[in-house]
Amino acid sequence: MTNTQILLSIAIMAVCTLLTRIFPFLILPDHKKTPVLVQYLGTVLPFAIIGMLVVYCFKNVSLLQYPFGIPELTGFLFVVLVHRWKHHLLLSIGGGTLLYMTVIRFIL
Known about the structure:
The chain is mainly alpha-helical and 108 residues long. It folds into two domains: 1-32; 34-107, no CATH class. 78% of the residues lie in helices and 0% in strands. It has helices at residues 3-27, 36-58, 70-86, 89-107. The longest helix is centred in the N-terminal third of the chain and has 25 residues, at 3-27.
């Protein structure tokens, strides 16, 4: 890419980001009262997204071939158990990621 194309791409991305940030304030008439639909989506979507990420992470795991899903399952169990124990998102996800990476690099 040339410098002009790079600058044009950055400018387009900046404008699109700005528009997506401003758009909700333009379409909502009263800024102090959140619509019921937006409140509902705010409570439902985080759980749906987490469920979708779990399915995505396990979609290529084969329990019939080596390593039989052991790295993925150890990371998953670590995340679930530590989060239920400490309720600390960064500790559970970060620790699960580190455990998974350790298992796939050094143990298996």
